[in-house]
Design brief:
The protein is α/β, with parallel strands linked by helices. Helix content is 38%, strand content 13%. It has one domain: NADP-dependent oxidoreductase domain (TIM Barrel, Alpha-Beta Barrel), CATH 3.20.20.100. It is built from twelve helices and ten strands. The strands form two sheets. Strands 3-4-5-6-7-8-9-10 form an eight-stranded parallel sheet. Helix 2 crosses helix 3 and helix 3 packs across helix 4. 43% of the residues are buried. Belongs to the aldo/keto reductase family. Keywords: Carbohydrate metabolism, Oxidoreductase, Xylose metabolism.
């Protein structure tokens, strides 16, 4: 049985889910269906992933066959940078709901604290880095709080159960919370961040959890998530699966390195969203809370932190979120 995290919105989120980033369109539907059969109930997607139609097809197949009810699933998506203007937030959400074939989302996150120039859906979707002018980046002057207020309205309209943020640093969260609290608004339920032994961010996690915000980790396996993206940084970094520290801990507990990496996060109260095409690993990733890392294990993993970030908007267009 997968443990759950109680969110400040009153809803409950499974601690272990299935990540939809980089799911190939041709196989995404079947992968989602198989993950539901395996027992996954949280599915973490995004508009920018370009596969929400296929994810929705997998969900529909599982529901139609009686494997699961909609209310038993926890479906996550993320508002892309091109739709931060309040007048475009609901347009983007409606596109996501239509693609997924759903009436509501369980969680909708602001994907990045970056506001690109709006690109109409009929012009290009998902727009990615396209801002209407070839490869040139263009931005809109939309404060995060304005985008947040638009999301709050959609919670009240019943289209979203919980709202949150992704790829925000501490100072941005601190400022956003002050704005929300000054208005008596809805506080973020979840912060999603890159999190693995090479990038542990303990102070950010301590602060956020202390504010009653749950944390979800992505890229729990570190460079493994970025190798297929031709990331030189990832290729030049030793894989965590073969790292002596992780392998030693895995051997001690009779677990795989992947299970150790996921348990390291869940033992700190963090949710994880791994994905796998391998049926055996699907089951292994879902069942990582049946053992406990020792204090010595935790101390050894802490030594691996080198502040190495693989997903950094500074590499896109010198966008200074994490500098």
């Amino acid at each position: 049985m997968v443990e759950h995290i109680k969110l400040n919105s009153g809803h409950s989120m499974p601690q272990i889910g299935f990540g939809c980033w980089k799911l190939d369109e041709s196989s995404a539907s079947e992968q989602i269906y198989n993950a539901i059969k395996e027992g996954y109930r949280l599915f973490d997607g995004a508009e920018d992933y370009g596969n929400e139609k296929q994810v929705g097809q997998g969900i529909k197949k599982a529901i139609d066959e009686g494997l699961v009810k909609r209310e038993e699933l926890f479906i996550v998506s993320k508002l892309w940078n091109s739709y931060h203007d309040p007048k475009n937030v609901e347009i983007a959400l409606d596109k996501t709901l239509s693609d997924l074939g759903l009436d509501y989302l369980d969680l909708f996150l602001i994907h990045f604290p970056i506001s690109f120039k709006f690109v109409p859906i009929e012009e290009k979707y998902p727009p990615g880095f396209y801002c209407g002018d070839g490869d040139n980046f263009h931005y809109e002057n939309v404060p995060i709080l304005n985008t947040w207020n638009a999301l709050e309205k959609l919670v009240k309209a019943g289209k979203i159960k919980s709202i949150g943020i992704s790829n925000f640093n501490g100072s941005l969260i601190y400022d956003l919370l002050r704005g929300i609290r000054s208005q008596g608004g809805i506080e973020p339920s979840v912060l999603q961040i890159e999190h693995h032994p090479y990038l542990q961010q303990p102070r950010l996690i301590e602060y956020v959890q202390g504010q009653g915000i749950a944390v979800t980790a992505y890229s729990s396996f570190g460079p493994q998530s970025f190798i297929e993206l031709e990331s030189k940084k990832a290729k030049d970094t030793p894989t965590l699966f073969e790292h002596d520290t992780i392998k030693s801990i895995a051997d001690k507990h009779g677990k795989s390195p992947a299970q150790v990496l996921l348990r390291w996060a869940t033992q700190h109260g963090i949710a994880v969203i791994p994905k796998s095409n391998n049926p055996k690993r699907l089951g292994q990733n879902l069942n990582v809370n049946d053992f406990k890392l020792s204090d010595e294990d935790i101390k050894e993993i802490a030594k691996l932190d080198i502040g190495l970030r693989f997903n950094d908007p500074w590499d896109w267009d010198k966008i200074p979120i994490f500098v």
